[in-house]
Amino acid sequence: MIGLIENGVLAKNERLPSLREFASSFRVSINTARSAYDVLERERYVRTVPQSGYYVTDRVAVSELSPVDALSLDPREVGLGAIASAMAASGAERPAGIDVGLSYLARDLIPANTLRLFTDDAHRFHRNMPFPLLAPHGYVPLRQQIALHSLSIGLPVKPESVIVTSGCQESIYVALQAVAPTDAFVAVEDPAPFSVLRILEALRLRPIEIPCSGDGGMSLEALAFALDRYPVAAVVTNGSFMNPTGALMPDEKKRELVRISSSRNVPIIEDDSVGDLFFAGRRSRPGTCLSFDRDENVIYCSSFSRTVAPNLRLGWIIPGKWRRSVERLTRIMNLGMSAIPQISMALLLEDGFFPRHLRKVRGALRARVPAARAAILAAFPAGTLASDPSGGVSLWVTLPGGRKSEDLYARAVPDGILVAPGNLFGVARRHESSFRVNASVLIPDAEGIARSLGSLAAQIPRHGEAGIPVR
Questions:
Q1: What is the tens place of the pLDDT at every residue in 176-187?
Q2: Is the pTM of this model over 0.85?
Q3: Is-contact 200 188, C-beta < 8 A?
Q4: Which residues pair with 163 in a beta bridge?
Q5: How far apart are CA 216 and CA 119, in angstroms?
Q6: pLDDT tens digits for range 264-281
Q7: DSSP assignment string, 416-440
Q8: Which one, of 207, 138, 141, 200, lies nearest residue 169 by Cα?
């Protein structure tokens, strides 16, 4: 409820559901509902009107902005756009710096030599390639190989159901274009991938941020409440090793997410770009929302950029019942899509290299992520928190005492270390003390980098202090 109020979704002076309606929506008792409203009233998010009910106050009005306004070029957007631009500029100025803010594999985990060999083969093959293989929706053998890979992870899809894109970001962009008209509400996780927030901004869509827990992902109770109260056009989820927290939504919860969305005829756009990077305590890959979908209500998006190499710029989308719209949109966007990366990736998959590569990467991450986490907790001020993911490359770190991660970012840039401040991953600025780091990049000098960042973090004033370094 606080998230809906802070985002401006529940507007000032808007009447809240009655206690009975609230209890029914969240499946709690009347006493629990009353306690929740008491907290909202005590924190001045709502006020009571005798004989009428509870109403939203203007305590945390978002400068009178709606969620879509909060993603435009206003003071709040400066936290997203300016920092993102500065990160890019800093990286360009310091090519030898350590960018621990991105969420791609470390360079030593990218199979550059193997990719070069398959690219050379692709160039030779391309000279005499039958033209029909370059179908409008992707190189046919690549689509066949993606379908085979999908089958190996429990997704029996046909090659003709697979549409090749230039990456997962493009897949999500196209999916949202297909299902969400301008100014529509879209439910997203909080925190959410920065790229998703930028897509919503570009398409002029209105995010409803659904709170997430560190160990289970999106709150389905909050999602159901939002879907029942607002005309939500889509739910965007990154349920397997979420960006930026690394959280994993359990398979049963994914099944329930599919049920909740399907029963309300709201499509799910699933980002599964790092689901293959599982490691801690798991022998098998986590499930997907698509594997529980019986109504073609899930639009599945994935990519090789986060599992093989970012410069591949290759992804795919399985659009379900929105296939015709997605085909039309991708046909327009991918007129100039290069054949060589598609051919080289198809050859790599046919060779059987991909499973071997994934085993190597998982083994590396199994060692690196816990080591990076331990180094951070040892070097940062007491009270620092860090996520403990079972897959992916991201660690979500929260500074104690209300210290701001943007201050850490600013202090680390001169040392050539780039982190991703928490405000990049949310609209309502609820993550000012958190930041994302790439655990795979911290190695081999995790302790040294952690000590440098920890020392800088200790110099950041606690909330309410006037620039006094913390000892």
A1: 999 999 999 999
A2: no
A3: yes
A4: 317
A5: 40
A6: 999 999 999 999 999 977
A7: TEE-EEGGGG-SS---TTEEEEEHH
A8: 200
